[in-house]
Amino acid sequence: MDQLFNNRETAVSVWVFIFICWAFSKKEIRESIKQVLVAFCHRAILTIFALMAGYVYLTVDFLSSTGLWDLEQLKNTIMWFIFVASVELFKANTIHEEKGYFKKSIKGHFKLLVILEFIVAFQSFSLVAELIIVPISTLAVLLLAFAEAKEEYKSVENLMTWMLSIFGIFMVFFALYFISISFDDFSQSKTLMNFSIPIILSIFLLPFIFIISIYMLYERILVRVNIYTEDRLYRLYAKLKGLIYFKRDYKSLNDWISFSCVSDFESRKTIDESIISFKNSADKRV
To answer: What residue intervals traverse the membrane (predicted)?
Structure first.
């Protein structure tokens, strides 16, 4: 029977455990973790995560029916959900705000997949070697991420990029060497699945992330209607009327709510008049 975790996964687990023990030994970090957990347990966040988990389950069920997924991929799927899907979900609310988001997202997504593939799919070294490689490579990635955010550290960014490129080339050649001497093992469906499943799951996840991003965008805009009236029926009517009238023009919808005042939400008639007034005002500006 194949071991459940390879040496690289074991090394990652060991260092994560050490880091967690260190983090919980610091009072200020414990308090920060507590605040993060409380925020994460908000009903809205849990609901979205539950929806994503359900979507991934349906995706896995479909892949299983086509023979592209089996139970041996459960570990890799869980790791992908935690380290890739969850990260993309937390970034969903910036899709419509950040210029060139999809290009940056695909680039970042690719980096996450490369890291995941490195952990679960590449042939690993001995446990002692992996215990040395994992923290060094992690530190290099963190330094690169920090340097990319600071223009004054451009030289550090170039150095880290060069070092990681050399390391990546070495790993590719090592993997090719492993394939050349153990092609029968590599060509087994399990090994091919280890490479392909995270990529396939990420492709299937994109529509869900996009839909969630749209929901977050409109929810963030429409929630401000609640400021203008406490009447639940008027709140619902104003939101539906705004969605129907402005359709996909979320910027105008946002401007209308900003343009409005409390008196605009005293009845259905005043809500309708507010939209018409905003339209006329916008037409004059054009």
So the answer is: 6-24, 36-58, 131-147, 159-183, 195-218
How does residue 280 score in pLDDT terms, banded at 50, 70 and 90?
confident
In a domain, 215, yes or no: no
Q: Is the pLDDT of residue 168 over 80?
A: no
Structural domain contains residue 216 = no
Pick from 201, 243, 242: nearest CA to 85: 201
**Same-domain status, 269 and 156:** no
The whole-angstrom separation of Cα 151 and Cα 174 is 34
Q: Which of 54-68, 130-144, 230-244, 259-273 has the highest mean pLDDT?
A: 54-68
| Domain extent for 46 | 7-205
Round to whole Å and give the CA distance between 100 and 97: 9
Number of domains in the chain: 2
CA-wise closest residue to 56 among 36, 40, 76: 76
The predicted-structure confidence for 54-96, as pLDDT tens digits, reads as follows 999 999 999 999 988 888 888 888 888 887 888 788 877 776 6
Which two tokens mark 69?
């997924």
211 assigned to some structural domain: no
* Same domain, residue pair 102 and 154: yes
Q: Which helix (H) or strand (E) holds 231?
A: none
The CA distance from 238 to 224, in Å, is 11
Question: Tokens representing 163?
Answer: 């070092």
DSSP string, 203-214: HHHHHHHHHHHH
Give yes or no: residues 233 and 185 share one domain: no
Full-model pTM: 0.66
Residues 132 and 143: their CA atoms lie apart, in Å, by 17
